[in-house]
Design a protein that fits this description.
78% helix; mainly alpha; globular; Rhopdopsin 7-helix transmembrane proteins; 3-stranded mixed β-sheet; 272 residues
Length: 272
Amino acid sequence: MSSLRHEMSIGVVQPDAKVLSWWRTLRALAVLNVCLWLAVLHFGPINGVHGGLQLALSGVYVLVCAYRSMFPRVDLERLVVVDTRLSSIFLGRAAATVAEICFAMQLGLLVHQLGAHAGMPWVQTAAWVVPVFMVVAQCFCWHSVLTLNHITQAVESLLWAAGFSWMAALLAVIALDSSGWVNTLAIFGILGSVSFVAYVLGVDVPMYWRRYQHGRARGQTYMRLDQGARDAWHRRVQSGSWSAWKADALWLTPYFSLGVWISIAMVCVPGG
């Protein structure tokens, strides 16, 4: 532990006030989120097999988000706050892949649970299409990380948007033929899904498209997958400048806060 503290102490390049404040917020969120998950583990209403699965999947997501909050990074730019092996782009992306698949499975399980309560077996089956979109998205994400091509990062975001759109459609079907808490939760799910899709289409995809165009204008050469793997494992570009981080902080902050809270909240949904 002392060697890690020493490595971190020499690995931070005088971040400016905004970066330091943002990073402190992420670390505080990481501690809060782990405490919330532990509180649900010990005191929360965890019901049956569904609740146990949600708890396990959420636990992975919470821990990985805590790790990534401690060592923020931007994959394609190889940008890090702390220059340490724990900030490895490859390592962070591998952890994020596992966590995002777990979160996607939580979403599919949520729709499956609500479909069971609403008495809609076909919705329960169709619910597993939701995580399929997100799993396929991971392939495009890895392609972008290894080749440095932002266009496949935009495709990844579009696949997430498609998954949430499908979820919103299934939840709309449930909402139309249910009542009580199932109806209320379905409506909240629709609003959340639509908001996420609007964000992706309005912020994420245009950002990646601009970066792709900027790369083409600079004549950027894309890497082979094997070259990109080595590069992602070893290369880190350390920066404490807010101008370098502010665009990605716009999605990293809600990812490590609201996204984690949703993950933990899904643990408490009664099983079907």
